[in-house]
């Protein structure tokens, strides 16, 4: 049997996290005594302190707001993590080096292809430009799906408030990567009208709690096909588990 190892999740806040139950069950099913716990880090100082001595962890997941901020503290990155500029899974080597991976890429790609099938000849609108958005954009580039990014901070191609009917009509794949509408703020809505969305659209919201955000509800009412982030969540977690179990460093 494997020696007992520690794993965890860093980010803030972590009240929506499913990771503890998921990985605890995975370890139990494998007959391993490994443990997994949450590490809510409210600010960058806490992140810095944690990464200087990650409590003897063998690996950890990274969620918002640290998928990009964690990178300067890592000793190396996988090819995909380096390419998209975001990390959500870290392996701690035997000598203490922190090795960053991005399993959001695997999770999003597998769930997206199952969702859209052969309907890949369309343009995509990506809402948000955080760490999750970077994994999404990387996958779209791999699939040769042209896309634009709209964000509230002006760091995308457009502002969210610039999204209009014509833009929505021109982009049949809409991918929502921001926390807008996530529990406990389910009533929060995106700052643009969904006029222009119809039955030819595919609307993907990476949020999984609640199961259906206001964005997805309204898109479904207009005839759009919809999906939440639950399949992506499980796929990326499975990939992180596989990375940790295969790691011999």
How is this fold's topology laid out?
Layout: E1 6-11, H1 19-29, E2 35-40, H2 44-52, E3 57-62, E4 76-77, H3 79-84, E5 89-92, E6 98-101, H4 104-116, E7 124-127, H5 131-142, E8 147-151, E9 158-159, H6 165-170, E10 173-176, E11 202-205, H7 214-221, E12 225-227, H8 230-246
Parallel strand pairs: 1-2, 1-3, 4-6, 7-8, 7-10, 8-9, 10-11, 11-12
Antiparallel strand pairs: 3-5, 5-6
Report on this model:
This protein has 249 residues and is of the alpha/beta class. The protein is elongated, with a radius of gyration of 18 Å. Helix content is 33%, strand content 20%. The chain is built from 8 helices and 12 strands. The model has no long low-confidence stretch (mean pLDDT 95). The strands form 2 sheets. A 6-stranded mixed beta sheet has the order 2-1-3-5-6-4. Helix 1 (19-29) links the parallel strand 1 (6-11) and strand 2. Helix 4 (104-116) packs across helix 5 (131-142) and helix 4 packs across helix 8. The protein has 2 domains: 6-102, 3-Layer(aba) Sandwich (Rossmann fold); 105-231, NAD(P)-binding Rossmann-like Domain (Rossmann fold).
């Amino acid at each position: 049997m494997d020696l007992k190892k520690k794993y965890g999740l860093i980010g803030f806040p972590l009240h929506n996290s499913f990771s503890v139950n998921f990985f605890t069950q995975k370890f139990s099913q494998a007959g391993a005594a490994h443990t997994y716990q949450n590490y809510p880090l409210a600010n960058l100082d806490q992140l810095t302190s944690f990464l200087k001595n990650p409590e003897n962890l063998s690996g950890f997941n990274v969620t918002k707001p640290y998928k990009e901020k964690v990178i300067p503290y890592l000793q190396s990155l996988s090819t995909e993590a380096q390419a998209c500029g975001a990390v959500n899974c870290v392996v701690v080597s035997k000598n203490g080096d922190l090795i960053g991976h991005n399993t959001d890429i695997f999770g999003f790609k597998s769930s997206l292809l199952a969702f859209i099938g052969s309907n890949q000849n369309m343009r995509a609108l990506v809402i948000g430009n955080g760490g999750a958005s970077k994994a999404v954009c990387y996958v779209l580039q791999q699939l040769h799906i042209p896309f634009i990014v709209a964000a509230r901070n002006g760091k995308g191609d457009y502002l969210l408030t610039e999204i209009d009917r014509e833009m929505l009509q021109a982009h049949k794949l809409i991918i929502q990567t921001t926390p807008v509408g996530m529990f406990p703020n389910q009533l929060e809505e995106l700052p643009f009208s969904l006029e222009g969305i119809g039955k030819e659209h595919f609307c993907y919201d990476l949020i999984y709690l609640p199961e259906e955000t206001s964005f997805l509800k309204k898109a479904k009412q207009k005839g759009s096909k919809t999906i939440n982030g639950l399949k992506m969540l499980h796929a990326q977690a499975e990939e992180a588990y596989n990375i940790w179990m295969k790691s011999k460093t």
